[in-house]
Design goal:
Largest sheet: 2 strands, parallel
Order of helices and strands: HHHHEHHEH
Strand content: under 5%
Distance between the termini: 25 Å
Structural class: mainly alpha
Length: about 150
């Protein structure tokens, strides 16, 4: 109930944070495109990701999970231990980190996209979510009385 009231009071602030994150992401993409157009003098994010795609698979999964958590957070009505979802997400990150260090492991572009989408789905499904309380019997009675 405390979290619900907090989120309802700060809904405008949360929407502002989402907007700022989207602007930062768009700015990063535009800067990367400009730096690629300027030539090989400047290192860009896309070159680092392309050159070290297999080693940074964990970072790709984390990025997908964060995007899924920030932009597609879901409301649940049954309270579960929040730390279990965080540890599940963290264990997948560690596993992907070890997998990326293998010499024989090579990742293609579509695999990278699939890992990012999977990270978003896993982040949205098992990472701690905002828990909305179910209405109590008294609240249901008051709602029926108002009708």
């Amino acid at each position: 109930m405390i979290f619900r009231n907090f989120f309802l009071r700060n809904l405008k602030t949360l929407k502002t944070i989402r907007t700022i994150l989207a602007i930062v992401l768009g700015t990063m993409i535009i800067i990367d495109i400009v730096l690629v157009a300027l030539g090989d003098e400047y290192p860009t994010f896309s070159e680092i990701v392309k050159d070290q795609r297999s080693e940074l698979i964990w970072l790709n999964f984390l990025l997908g999970g964060l995007v899924g958590k920030v932009f597609y957070n879901r409301v649940v009505y049954t309270k579960k231990p929040e730390i279990s979802g965080f540890f599940a997400f963290l264990s997948i990150l560690v596993l992907l980190g070890f997998l990326g260090q293998l010499e024989s492991f090579q990742l293609e572009t579509w695999h990278q996209l699939l890992v990012m989408i999977t990270g978003a789905i896993v982040g949205q499904r098992i990472w701690p979510q905002y828990v909305a309380d179910e209405p109590t019997e008294a609240e249901i009675q008051r709602a029926k009385a108002k009708k």
